[in-house]
Design brief:
single chain, about 350 residues, alpha/beta, Nucleotidyltransferase, domain 5, 2 domains, 6-stranded mixed β-sheet, 5-stranded mixed β-sheet, 14 helices, 11 strands
């Protein structure tokens, strides 16, 4: 049996598959800030009764690691060194690996990276306009994130329409607590909205997306790097605008009585800015691709309540000839498939 773990700052998801990738068991547990991650994960894994022979982990940020990786003490240390660049995910990914190494002793552990799908980005898409020696020293480049989800959703869309994946122009929108958009041409990612870290790109639930670098410098000078990082990762985005970090609660506010207009405006503004940021990227990627055969919405927001995707695509006349699909992602299945092939 194959165990796949998908852990983050807000939830623990796990699935058990047979060797033929049939789902055997699964579980999900939401996490609250005050709770102890390692203990919760140990409790969840204690529910598994199957004989596990291989464990796969979603790891958001792989840095220089570009393919599914068998975990060793050495490469785990390397992953720990860069975990601060994806603070809402990588620390939890690494903690999950350590817990599993302790519980499933002598069982191979494999890491599959969100960044893998973007390894082949053209240089004009991944390079930053910084001094070459600085980019090389710090490995500054566009790595991209949510790659497991983008690749899965795009392939699933092609399969649903019975068209060859490697002959399509596809834009995938992964919308959730973190959100990103990817342009895919002939089966390969050619651009994506997230960059060196998951901060860049779309407005998100608690991250601002694209902002003037001067703002980051001012925040760092005023509050220090650590506090500035907290503001940018946990207190900005839609939460910064309206004070709410749960998307369904924002939608609920929008549906309230119009008499609450004064209170409601900030929720409408947060929603409008979110939608607008998505539309701008779709428009840009439509141009880069030279058209779009399929626009895919995935992630908890993208494939969930239809209001967001309806508001996005109805405002874009360029999509008149584009097939629009909502597809529930399955990162765990995609990870299981990758580690079997590795």
């Amino acid at each position: 049996m194959i165990l796949v773990l998908n852990c983050g700052s807000q939830s623990i998801k796990w699935k058990v598959y047979s060797e033929k990738l049939k789902l055997v068991d699964h579980g999900k547990r939401d996490i609250f800030v005050s709770e102890e991650f390692d203990n919760i994960l140990s409790d969840e894994l204690g529910k598994i009764t199957e004989d596990i022979m291989l464990v796969g982990h979603r790891v958001v940020y792989g840095g220089e690691f570009t393919k599914p990786l068998k975990i060793t003490s050495e490469n785990l240390q390397e992953l720990e060194k860069i975990s601060h660049l994806a603070p809402l995910h990588n620390p939890y990914n690494i903690s999950a690996i350590k817990v599993c190494l302790n519980i499933f002793k002598n069982i191979p552990q494999m890491a599959v990276f969100d960044t893998e799908f973007f390894v082949g980005l053209p240089e004009k898409a991944y390079a930053y306009a910084l001094p070459e020696n600085i980019s090389e020293k710090f490995n500054f480049r566009r790595y991209g994130f949510h790659g497991i989800s983008h690749e899965y959703a795009a392939k699933k869309a092609a399969e649903m329409l019975k068209k060859p994946f490697n002959k399509l122009k596809i834009i995938t929108c992964h919308l959730g607590g973190g959100s990103s958009i990817t342009a895919i041409k002939n089966g390969k990612a050619i651009d994506t909205s997230m960059g060196f870290t998951p901060q860049e790109g779309l407005v998100m639930m608690t991250r601002p997306g694209n902002i003037d670098a001067g703002i980051v410098l001012e925040l760092a000078k005023e509050f220090g790097p650590e506090e500035a990082g907290k503001i940018l990762n946990k207190e900005s985005g839609m939460k910064g605008i309206c004070g709410e970090s749960e998307f369904l609660k924002i939608l609920s506010r929008l549906e309230r009585d119009p008499a609450m207009a004064g209170e409601k405006n900030k929720y409408q503004l947060a929603f409008d800015i979110f939608v607008y940021s998505i539309q701008k990227y779709i428009g840009a990627y439509f141009t880069v691709l030279g058209g779009c055969d399929i626009l895919v919405f995935t992630g908890s927001i993208g494939a969930g309540n239809p209001k967001t995707r309806n508001d996005v695509w109805k405002g874009l006349d360029i999509l008149k000839k584009t097939k629009v699909l909502a597809i529930e992602t399955d990162e765990e299945l995609a990870i299981a498939e990758k580690i079997i092939k590795s």
